[in-house]
Design goal:
The complex is a heterodimer of chains A (230) and B (343). Chain A is of the alpha/beta class. In chain A, helix 3 packs parallel to helix 5 and helix 4 crosses helix 5. The longest helix of chain A is centred in the last third of the chain and has 18 residues. Chain B is mainly alpha-helical and 343 residues long. In chain B, the strands form three sheets. A two-stranded antiparallel sheet of chain B has the order 1-2. A two-stranded antiparallel sheet of chain B has the order 3-6. Chain B has a two-stranded antiparallel sheet with strand order 4-5. In chain B, helix 1 runs antiparallel to helix 6 and helix 3 runs antiparallel to helix 4. The relative contact order of chain B is 0.16. Classes of the chains: A alpha/beta (230), B mainly alpha (343). Chains A and B meet through helix 2, helix 3 and helix 5 of A and helix 7 and helix 8 of B.
């Protein structure tokens, strides 16, 4: 599904990522753990084309997308739910969802999304800025999924969200992973959420992956301390 | 934005009101005021074009008068050469639209935004002012049309029935045509903004990065919006050339560029009604001020602008809409109460 080789990127002259390598198969969920400032968000933003790749190669579905624009990558099937959700605050929930599905051919995905996330049904005419943090997160996820991506990049989806909504999001993503073969790259500080969803976990330090562990190993205090010092 | 994307009921009501005003005003207003009103209507079309580009596209264009002037010149030059006004009318829309598309292509695809975009568009306008001003002399002619330098092109032939140059548009006819054009542009833009294209344009204004991450090429949508705005401004320019039967490089001047922005600021960005209201109000005040000797007109207009920027920053129409909405709707209580919120 995605193959990243020797990926380097950064902000201006400041390099952040130093030779990231990984591959993912369809339907796989990869968790990325690391301290703040280690390059997690930079990695996601580089994968979606928001930050320029300075060296290396990104292949998605067998196609080299290293120099493709963000919109081209999105159309190729890479979805992104950033930290802070980035919904359109002045557009209604329905309009936000429509924005997500415009690139999609065929029947509307909105009924399907409302089936997955029924909480949005009563909010369709409400402007995005009128939603709570949890509702915004659900909307951001539903909008992304409405475009029927093959790979979804989630940046701290549980940040500031109440536990019941975190569980709902985990349950839905787990379901879609199986039913749609959805690949997910999950950047998250919430170890419980990663354990619930990820097939494997990559540890990032100073812009490079230093270890790969299984979600079960996140129960092992020694391993967690060794890699994350938490 | 949801509130702005009103239902078709509002659109029908606005259309009916516009038609009623269009039919009623000539009956109740004296002929001198009709001449002024016609120019207000034409300028309102220009204001609408900036209202689209700036208010909905989020593109701060300081040089909207460039397209207005290009439209006016394109019409004047073509109608002097062709005699019949049908093709010149089309050229007054197409030429500025293409010019906007070309300029926009280089700016949007080079990712030039915000104040840099404004400065470049203003510079282009001022270059056109200088260039057209430097065309005095008999060598500066296009076909049978002398460009005239700062003296401009006088005696611009009026619009006529398609294929009938002998049946020219009367001044009353120009008022009706301008009014119908304003109405058609308003309705067309309202429908366009309700379409998916319009939703994407607004979404890009709200959050360009997010829209791109959803698969939209923001540069293309901005370019298309800019070109449409340029074409509308050009149409207004054609009507303006008909109104005065004269066109000069003053249409590219700094004053013309600035006043379009003032109309939109006073009326309110993010609405289509706002630029129209702002244009009519400021034009009317300017006319009244011009008729007296007590106060300096520019000083009063400048004070009004500063007052609006400081006290009514959203402009008249959005402020009134918000006040009405507050009266109409009670506060909303979210059904899903969050324990913790993102700061």
């Amino acid at each position: 599904m995605i193959e990243v080789k020797n990926l380097h990127s950064g902000y201006g002259r400041i390099p952040i990522l130093h030779g990231i390598n990984f591959t993912m198969k369809p339907g796989e969920v990869v968790g990325i753990l690391g301290h703040n400032g280690m390059g997690k968000t930079t990695l996601l933003r580089t994968l979606v084309g928001q930050i320029k790749t300075t060296q290396g190669r990104i292949e998605f579905d067998g196609r080299d997308v290293t120099s493709a624009s963000s919109s081209e990558r999105a159309r190729a099937g890479i979805g992104y739910v950033p930290q802070g959700r980035d919904i359109f605050p002045l557009l209604s929930v329905m309009e936000n969802l429509k924005m997500g599905e415009i690139m999609r051919d065929g029947a509307s995905a909105i009924p399907e999304m409302l089936g997955h996330f029924p909480v949005l049904k009563d909010l369709l005419e409400r402007p995005g800025r009128g939603l709570s943090g949890g509702q915004q997160q659900i909307l951001a996820l539903a909008r992304c999924l409405a475009g029927r991506p093959k790979l979804v990049l989630l940046d701290e989806p549980t940040e500031g969200i109440q536990p019941s909504i975190v569980d709902l999001i985990a349950e839905k993503l787990g379901e879609l992973k199986v039913t749609l073969g959805l690949g997910i790259i999950l950047v998250e500080q919430d170890i419980r959420f990663i354990r619930q969803l990820a097939d494997r976990v990559l540890i990032i330090q100073k812009g490079a992956f230093v270890a790969e562990i299984s979600p079960d190993q996140l129960y092992d205090r020694e391993i967690v301390d060794a890699h994350l010092g938490i | 934005m949801t509130a702005n994307w009103q239902g078709n009921g509002g659109l029908v009501a606005a259309t009916v009101l516009g038609l009623v005003l269009l039919l009623a005003l000539p009956q109740i207003v004296d002929p001198v005021m009709m001449i002024e009103l016609t120019s207000y209507v034409i300028m309102a079309i220009l204001a609408l074009s900036l209202g689209l580009i700036w208010g909905y596209g989020g593109i701060l264009c300081f040089g909207q008068s460039a397209f207005f002037g290009i439209g006016a010149y394109a019409y004047a030059i073509a109608v002097i050469n062709f005699g019949d006004s049908t093709i010149p009318l089309l050229l007054s829309i197409v030429v500025p639209g293409l010019f906007a598309a070309l300029l926009g292509y280089f700016l949007f695809y080079a990712r030039i935004t915000d104040v840099y975009f404004g400065v470049i568009t203003l510079t282009v306008t001022l270059i056109l002012y200088k260039v057209m001003g430097a065309t005095s002399g008999s060598q500066y002619v296009i076909g049978a049309a002398p460009l005239g330098g700062y003296n401009g092109i006088p005696a611009v032939p009026p619009l006529n029935l398609p294929g009938r140059p002998d049946v020219a548009l009367s001044f009353d006819g120009l008022f009706y045509l301008s009014g119908l054009t304003l109405l058609a542009v308003y309705v067309g833009l309202r429908l366009m903004l309700k379409s998916r294209f319009g939703q994407v344009v607004v979404a890009i204004r709200e959050n360009e990065r997010r829209a791109e991450l959803l698969g939209y090429d923001a540069r293309f949508y901005k370019l298309a919006t800019f070109a449409i705005g340029g074409a509308i401004a050009g149409l207004a320019g054609c009507l303006f050339a008909n109104w005065g039967m004269f066109i000069s490089p003053d249409v590219f001047g700094l004053a013309q560029s600035a006043q379009v922005i003032i109309w939109v600021i006073v009326g309110g960005t993010g609405t289509l009604l706002g630029p129209i209201v702002g244009c009519f109000a400021i034009q009317w005040i300017a006319t009244k001020l011009g008729a007296q000797q007590l106060l300096n007109a520019n000083l009063v207009l400048g004070t009004i602008l500063i007052g609006f920027v400081l006290l009514v920053p959203k402009g008249v129409v959005p402020t009134v809409s918000d006040a009405l909405r507050r009266l109409k709707f009670r506060p909303y209580v979210a059904p899903l109460v969050e324990q913790r919120r993102v700061p």
